[in-house]
């Protein structure tokens, strides 16, 4: 989750998010190179008086600053397209989780199990304890096994919502009458937090999402305890 004065992205909890962070850093380095070059050229033009008839036309420099941006765009576009295809691919999921957005809470259904569904509400502020996070903790959190491909099916019952977990690199719109799906795999155990990222009404910021990532054995024991 985010912390005080955190100016960068959250630590990646999935392979896709780690790749997104690498792509973010890769693009920033290219931007830094471009900004440095432009600032150097602007400073040179301000502090030097170039008066030469040979500088009125230069075919080589014009060719260079036409080809160079095209090459830079290729270096940015190829990793971006690769990531887009990876994020859209469903990799033989081991289980399916269905999330339904309501005003203003989430309902979850484990489609691979019988009658395993529940509603998830934000913990009211007056019931917060020292161990809970304000506006982020829920009364019923999602429990998922780590290192397992999980398919997420998202829809809404009333208005537009958006199921978002920043540390997983997952953001899927919940549209009434429509099923959107995505997939992810959690790298390590822990608790992950997210919120609805769509302006869905007056209490839209009070629709938190809590995921507890556990081992496969712990997940099986949790499912058995609810049966």
UniProtKB/TrEMBL annotation:
> Which CDD domains does the entry link to?
CcO_II_C (cd13912)
What is a biological process (GO) this protein takes part in?
ATP synthesis coupled electron transport
Q: How is the cofactor bound?
A: Binds a copper A center.
Q: Does the keyword ATP-binding apply?
A: no
List cofactor names only.
Answer: Cu cation
Q: Gene3D superfamilies of this UniProt entry?
A: 1.10.287.90, Cupredoxins - blue copper proteins (2.60.40.420)
- List, alphabetically, the GO terms of the cellular component aspect: mitochondrial inner membrane
Cytochrome oxidase subunit II transmembrane region profile domain: from which residue to which, for each copy?
Answer: 1-91
Tree of life domain: Eukaryota
Q: Which residues cross the membrane?
A: 27-47, 67-85
One example of the protein's molecular function in GO is: copper ion binding
Membrane topology, record value: Multi-pass membrane protein
Q: Where in the cell is it found?
A: Mitochondrion inner membrane
What InterPro entries does its record include?
CcO_II, CcO_II-like_C, CcO_II_C, Copper_CuA, Cupredoxin, Cyt_c_oxidase_su2, Cyt_c_oxidase_su2_TM_dom, Cyt_c_oxidase_su2_TM_sf
Q: Name one Pfam family in it.
A: COX2
Record key words, sorted: Copper, Electron transport, Magnesium, Membrane, Metal-binding, Mitochondrion, Mitochondrion inner membrane, Respiratory chain, Translocase, Transmembrane, Transmembrane helix, Transport
Describe its function: Component of the cytochrome c oxidase, the last enzyme in the mitochondrial electron transport chain which drives oxidative phosphorylation. The respiratory chain contains 3 multisubunit complexes succinate dehydrogenase (complex II, CII), ubiquinol-cytochrome c oxidoreductase (cytochrome b-c1 complex, complex III, CIII) and cytochrome c oxidase (complex IV, CIV), that cooperate to transfer electrons derived from NADH and succinate to molecular oxygen, creating an electrochemical gradient over the inner membrane that drives transmembrane transport and the ATP synthase.
Q: Which family does it belong to?
A: Belongs to the cytochrome c oxidase subunit 2 family.
Oligomer and partners: Component of the cytochrome c oxidase (complex IV, CIV), a multisubunit enzyme composed of a catalytic core of 3 subunits and several supernumerary subunits. The complex exists as a monomer or a dimer and forms supercomplexes (SCs) in the inner mitochondrial membrane with ubiquinol-cytochrome c oxidoreductase (cytochrome b-c1 complex, complex III, CIII).
The UniProt entry, under NCBIfam families, shows: CoxB (TIGR02866)
Q: What is this protein called?
A: Cytochrome c oxidase subunit 2
The record lists the organism as Reticulitermes virginicus
